Automatic annotation (TrEMBL):
Adds poly(A) tail to the 3' end of many RNAs, which usually targets these RNAs for decay. Plays a significant role in the global control of gene expression, through influencing the rate of transcript degradation, and in the general RNA quality control. The gene is pcnB. Residues 420-458 are annotated as: Disordered. InterPro entries: NT_sf, PolA_pol_head_dom, PolA_pol_I, PolyA_pol_arg_C_dom, PolyA_RNA-bd, tRNA_ntf/polyA_polymerase_I. Belongs to the tRNA nucleotidyltransferase/poly(A) polymerase family. Residues 436-448 have a biased composition (Basic residues). It comes from Methylophaga aminisulfidivorans. Its EC number is 2.7.7.19. This is Poly(A) polymerase I.
Length: 458
């Protein structure tokens, strides 16, 4: 184990190299408390307690990763991660409210409920000989290491900064401070090797770009274009988690544009991507972007969002197209929608999984669409009381906003929901009298911006 005391006693050394290669940074930069902006007031009580408890038990303890990066950038961290030289079992013993998680590489979660502090023992980078497969992907990642090794095995330089609870300094082995100041996201080490080891790093790069508004360092960026296809080999369950992080963190619209730009979306949602590429029709892109912008606005306003609505929007165009094809072959609208939903979802989950608890709701949102459009007799009342009515109505409003000629129908449902039941009866009766009710045929025209009410109460 590297002696930290030796490092601490050294004066702060500024990085003489650019920090992009493992061999070029022999000494870490240590930024003393007086030279950086992170104060203990900005750190959660629970995280401080974990750090101090580890320190008092004689271990080294650091905040690391996104929390240090975000604090230095003036953002509020999403969560606090701790790195230590204590082994997981030793950490577990120190905290009553903790549990060991992970099979291959054990981590400790301290505190339950909303505020969980993840404590990880320093890990060493994988060795080519026995920790990566033929494609270069990490298959084993379970060797404990030193602080220095732990820094080099992390993804980006800005994510490899350590806040030391012993003297409140920041330790930087990889040039993260310099990159943070320059606003650069730089992969640590050789770009091809690091993307091959774990292609999800490309999605993480897009996420940090969208969230932090930084830029990609040139090689980190060119590597994304070169290695985007590797994302295909990632297990669908992990890609589901990454989809949620990308699209449900408050910057979905920008993140989506980035994953499209770097060619990653093609491998995540191939059915949708193929249709988004069709230049002649702007509707699919408009519809998806409006859904994502709406999601971002709802998060900003502190309103709830659900992955089911997100997947309904992400996969809408392939479902809509498939439904239209089936209807052209003579299938009625509702069964056509059900069949289309099954086909599109079953293909999609081979790439990015969608847990049943969400995909069932997604299907409800879709299959309620033809019912919302028809509004026939008693069915209108049944539709109104369907548990997913509100989400389906919001989805219909989104379609209308994106250019489908559904304004009248949306307005009808808006009024119908608010009327007392006697008036609802007459609204339904009036509908029966109307002949030649507008068919849901696409027209190219845009409606006013999405109403604030969209996606409410999902
Ligand atoms: P967020 O604000 O989204 O939590 P984060 O950087 O903290 O951002 P986490 O997923 O919480 O992201 O990961 C914590 C840290 O673990 C990262 O900052 C990084 O140092 C390291 N890490 C996470 N994923 C990887 C990966 N795929 N490869 C290498 N290091 C990783
Ligand atoms: Mg984090």
């Amino acid at each position: 184990m590297l002696s930290l005391n030796k490092i601490f006693n050294k004066l702060v050394k500024r990085n003489k190299t650019n920090g992009s290669s493992r061999q070029s940074v022999p000494e870490p930069i240590i930024v003393p408390r007086s030279e950086h902006s992170i104060s203990r007031k900005q750190i959660s009580q629970q995280a401080l307690k974990v750090l101090y408890t580890l320190k008092e038990a004689g271990f080294d303890a650091y905040l690391v990763g996104g929390c240090v990066r975000d604090l230095l950038l003036g953002h509020e961290p999403k969560d606090f991660d701790v790195a230590t030289n204590a082994l997981p079992e030793q950490v577990h013993k120190l905290f009553k409210r903790s549990r060991l998680i992970g099979r291959r590489f054990k981590l400790v979660h301290v505190g339950f409920g909303r505020d969980v502090i993840e404590v990880a023992t320093f890990r060493a980078p994988p060795e080519a000989s026995n920790h990566v497969d033929k494609q270069g992907r990490i298959v084993q990642d379970n060797v404990y290491g030193t602080l220095e090794q732990d820094a080099w095995r992390r993804d980006f330089t800005i994510n490899a900064l350590y806040y030391n609870i012993r003297d409140f300094s920041i330790i930087d082995y990889t040039g993260g401070i310099k990159d943070l100041n320059a606003g650069l996201i730089r992969l640590i080490g050789d770009v091809e090797t690091r993307y091959r080891e774990d292609p999800v790093r490309m999605l993480r790069a897009c996420r940090f770009l969208a969230k932090l508004g930084l830029k990609l360092e040139a090689e980190t960026e060119s590597g994304m274009f070169a290695w985007a296809t590797l994302i295909k080999d990632i297990p669908p369950a992990r890609l589901f988690d990454e989809t949620l992080k990308l699209y449900m963190s408050g910057y979905a619209a920008v993140a989506h544009e980035l994953v499209c730009h770097y060619g990653l979306f093609d491998h995540l949602y191939p059915q949708t991507a193929a249709l988004l590429h069709q230049e002649k029709d702007a509707y699919p892109r408009t519809m998806l972007m409006k859904a994502l912008e709406n999601t971002d606005k709802r998060i900003e306003a502190g309103k709830p969002i659900t992955p089911a609505f997100l997947f309904a929007a992400l996969l809408w165009e392939p479902v809509r197209q498939e439904m239209m094809l089936l209807m052209e072959k003579g299938m009625p609208d509702i069964p056509a929608m059900q069949r289309a939903a099954s086909e599109v979802v079953s293909q999609q989950i081979q790439r990015v999984s969608i847990p049943k608890r969400y995909s069932l709701v997604t299907r409800d949102i879709w299959t309620l669409q033809p019912r919302l459009i028809k509004r026939q007799g008693k069915r209108a009342f049944r539709t109104l009381t369907h548990p997913k009515f509100r989400a389906a109505y919001d989805f219909l409003a989104l379609r209308s906003d994106a250019g489908e000629p559904l304004d009248e129908i949306v307005d009808w449902w808006t009024a119908f929901q608010e009327k007392p039941s006697t008036e609802q009866q007459s609204m339904v009766a009036d509908l029966g009298k109307v002949t030649g009710r507008p068919k849901p045929k696409r027209r190219r025209r845009r409606r006013k911006p999405a109403s604030e009410a969209q996606q409410d109460s999902h």
